[in-house]
Amino acid sequence: MLNYKGYTGQINYDDEMKILHGEVIDTRDVITFQGKTVDEIEEAFRESIDDYLEFCNERGEQPDKPFSGKFILRMPPKLYRKLYLKANRSGKSLNRVSSN
Fold first, then answer.
1. What is the pLDDT of residues 44-60, one digit of tens each?
2. pTM of the model
3. Looking at the domain assignment, is residue 100 inside a domain?
4. DSSP assignment string, 22-80
5. Which candidate, 49, 47, 44, 24, places its Cα nearest to that of 34?
6. Which among 47, 56, 57 has a CA at the least distance from the CA of 5?
7. Hey, which of 26, 39, 83, 96 would disulfide with 66, CB 3.0 to 4.6 Å?
8. Domain containing 76: what range?
9. What pLDDT, on a 0 to 100 scale, did the predictor assign at position 43?
10. Tens digits of residue pLDDT in 68-82
C-alpha cells in the first residue's frame, strides 16, 4: 500500500502487459496510476493525487476526503431513544457517548 496526503493506493501487477497499476482505494472518485518500476509507480501515485487535488481546486470543488469518520447506522427507534436519553443525562452528545 502507498500513502500520500492521507490517500491510500493499492498496487497490482499485470503480468501480460508487464506493468504495475494502482488505484486510490479510500475515495469514491476514481484515481488510477501506473508504472514499470517501484520508483515509477510511487511517483505516479503522488502525481495522480496532486493532479486530482489541483483538478478539484480548479473546479472549485471539495476533493473527496478519505475516511470522513461518518458511519451511518440504522437502529430501532426504542434503542435510539435509549441512547439519546443516556447521552442527554450525562451532558454529552450522542456521538460522544457512542465513542466511549
1. 999 999 999 999 999 99
2. 0.66
3. yes
4. EEE-SSSS--EEEESSHHHHHHHHHHHHHHHHHHHHHHT-PPPPS--S-------HHHH
5. 44
6. 47
7. 26
8. 70-100
9. 98
10. 666 677 888 898 888
